Amino acid sequence: MNNLHQIGFSYLFLFPSLLLTGVLGIYPIGWAIWYMFYDYKGYGSASFVGLDNFERLLRDTQFWDSVVNTFIYAGGKLLITIPLSLVLAVILNHSFRGRSTLRAIIFLPTIISSAVMAVVFYIMFNSYNGLLNQYLLKLHLIPERIDWLGPDHAMLTAIIIAIWGAVGNYMLLFLSGLQNIPNDVYESASLDGASRWQQFWHLTVPMLGPVLQIVIMLAIINSLKGYESIMVLTDGGPIGKTEVMYLYVYKLFFPTPSASYTADQQFGYGSAVGFVTAVIVGIITLIYHLMSRRLNHLQ
Amino acid sequence: MKTTAYISTRRPSRSKSGPISAGRWGGRVLLGLFLLVTALLILFPLVVTAFGSFMTNAEISAGGKLIPAVWQFSNYQEAWVQAHFSRFLWNSVFLSAASTVGTLIVASMAAYVVDRMAFPGKVLFVGLQASTMFISIGAVVLRPQFQLMVKLHLHTTLWGVVLILINAHAYIFFILLSFLKGVSRELDEAARIDGCSNAGIYWRILLPLLRPALGVGALFTFCGAWNEYLRPLVFTLNNPELQTLTVGLSYLRYGPSAAVQTHYMFAGACLSILPLLLVYMIANKSFMQMTEGSLKG
To answer: N or C terminus of chain B with fewer C-beta within 10 Å?
Structure first.
């Protein structure tokens, strides 16, 4: 068979993939970069305004509040999720009866839609007749009803739900990393009389190092970007307490059920905000990357 | 099944053991308790949903009970008809099935030529696929995508969402590519000598050989599409009859009568979880093995 024929055939077979990526992947990003510099409401004509959108963004306290909320949400979620899933992975890496059942149970939330679960949690965490308050009151764990979705606790509730949905996923990623640690390392450590904690700190964590780094990076990116379940649970409310930055961007483009304070659609400004959020995520990822490299050198 | 029932830390264990091999009894009990509590906390919301879907609305609001007094099987019947769950379910099935088939075709065609053929720009193509997995500017892209679909008159069908979901085929492409690398080339050579065309080799030789990887890809794509919320939401803002289960359910939560539809919400949640749960139980092993790079959570 000749080469030209092969090349032609290759491009023919790549065509569906390239067409989709070009039209639905690259073009929308170009669209956003173009309209960043325009005042465009989505109807009528767009007028070029240069960097006005970015100036407005610097003054937009709602946006910066949402950035702070994003960090609280992501930080709270990761602080619990990563250690918990690591510990679970280490435990479930042993063989004992019921191990695979436990693994399956803990992984279960990963396969369930976060939007669907947000509806369920909304019913459970409801402050007046929510199941959770009733159970806690019955067990005398709380003195009075907690307003789980009120301004003081809504973020905490959102974080709890995020942890519930994420632990299994990261546990599984850590488990696949643990599979690669040879068993005899532990055996010789036991022979030397190393305690379980010593083995964990001095063997498991360092040997998981590369996997840990990649998984934590993924976790950071994902938790900064995740807003589906918050959208269904609180839609950013009450009074903007759970507004995260990607949700804020969404609202500039599409009306939400409880169309809160971003009254009209603003495509130009929304593109600018979307671009800046992506830059913020990129910067955080870069900082994390540099820091973890530093740690590698120290070891 | 082996248990890690060896006592002293001074003897090498022969089980797969990390730092926590059996210590004192107290430690083991604590560990067991910790695992039990974790499992219960994970299961609790799901159990509440399952039982709640058989209660009356009054029973749920009165609360404090886990097991329904009288099992209201009619909830499902009513949710099916009155809350339109029959339509939501059909839309979900259509969206997931079409996205899965499309993704597998597009991704396997690309993986075939990238692995088996020589052509200029191959490295560029692979780089492009990788970059689509990592570059994201959030909801911004939904707007131009939506406008495109309006121009193509696809915004009044679910096909627009299907195309957008197929567009996210990079992950499956890489799974298939790594699997193809391990498939011997002797078969395609033999087929070529027998006069089989390139397309024939793809269709008759490689696709059957790729079956296990295609199965895993199908599992991932189907679950992802089934649970997809944002894109179906955006595309059905003006077409409620296109809503999928995830979207329809979230609308119940914002509906004017949200308070009196709790039992429907539970029943709907069960309807949307059950199919995946069955698939999960059947394919548990593949789920557990193919987790590298899972991008959810």
So the answer is: N
Inspect the interface and report whether the beta carbons of B143 and A253 lie closer than 8 Å.
yes
Given a contact cutoff of 8 angstroms between Cβ atoms, the answer to whether B31 and A91 are in contact is yes
State pTM to two decimals. 0.86
**What is the full DSSP assignment across chain A?**
--HHHHHHHHHHHHHHHHHHIIIIIIHHHHHHHHHTTEE--SSS--EE-TTHHHHHHHH-HHHHHHHHHHHHHHHHHHHHHHHHHHHHHHHTTS--TTHHHHHHHHHGGGGS-HHHHHHHHHHHH-TTT-HHHHHHHHTTSSSS---TTSTTTHHHHHHHHHHHHHHHHHHHHHHHHHTTS-HHHHHHHHHTT--HHHHIIIIIHHHHHHHHHHHHHHHHHHHHH--HHHHHHTTT-STTTT--HHHHHHHHHS--TT--S--S--HHHHHHHHHHHHHHHHHHHHHHHHHHHHHHHH-
Of A228, A202, A8, which Cα lies nearest the Cα of B138?
A228
Walk me through the domains of chain B, giving residue ranges and CATH numbers: 79-296 (1.10.3720.10)
Determine the straight-line distance between the first and last CA of chain A, rounded to whole angstroms.
54
| CB interface of B with A, residues 74-103, below 8 Å | none
Q: Which two tokens stand for residue A125?
A: 């965490």
**Rounded Cα gap, residues B240 and B247, in angstroms:** 9
Contact residues on chain B for A120, CB-CB shorter than 8 A: 45, 48-49, 265-266, 269
Q: Tokens 């009389």, residue?
A: A193
Give me the mean pLDDT over the B224-241 stretch.
90
- Please write the tens of the pLDDT for every residue from A158-186: 999 999 999 999 999 999 888 888 878 88
pLDDT at B251 over 80: yes
Q: Which of A114, A216, A221, A220 is nearest to A165 (CA)?
A: A114
Question: Which domains are delineated in chain A?
Answer: 43-298 (1.10.3720.10)
- Tally of CA atoms within 13 A in the half-sphere of B99 that contains its CB: 31
CA distance B81 to B89: 12
| Residue with token string 């590369």 | A210
pLDDT tens readout for residues A223-263: 999 899 999 999 887 888 999 999 999 998 887 655 544 55
Residue with structure tokens 């959208």?
A231
The maximal CA–CA distance of chain A, rounded, in angstroms, is 81
CA–CA min distance A205, chain B (Å):
11
**For the residues B176-203, what does the mean pLDDT come to?**
90
**Residues in chain A, overall count:** 299
d(CA B104, CA A17) in angstroms, rounded, equals 11
A135–B contact, CB cutoff 8 A? yes
How many whole angstroms separate alpha carbon A101 and alpha carbon B49? 20
Would you place residue B78 in the very low, low, confident or very high pLDDT band (cuts 50, 70, 90)? Answer: confident
Does the beta-carbon distance from A122 to B253 stay under 8 Å? Answer: yes
Which SS3 state, helix, strand or coil, does residue A39 take? strand
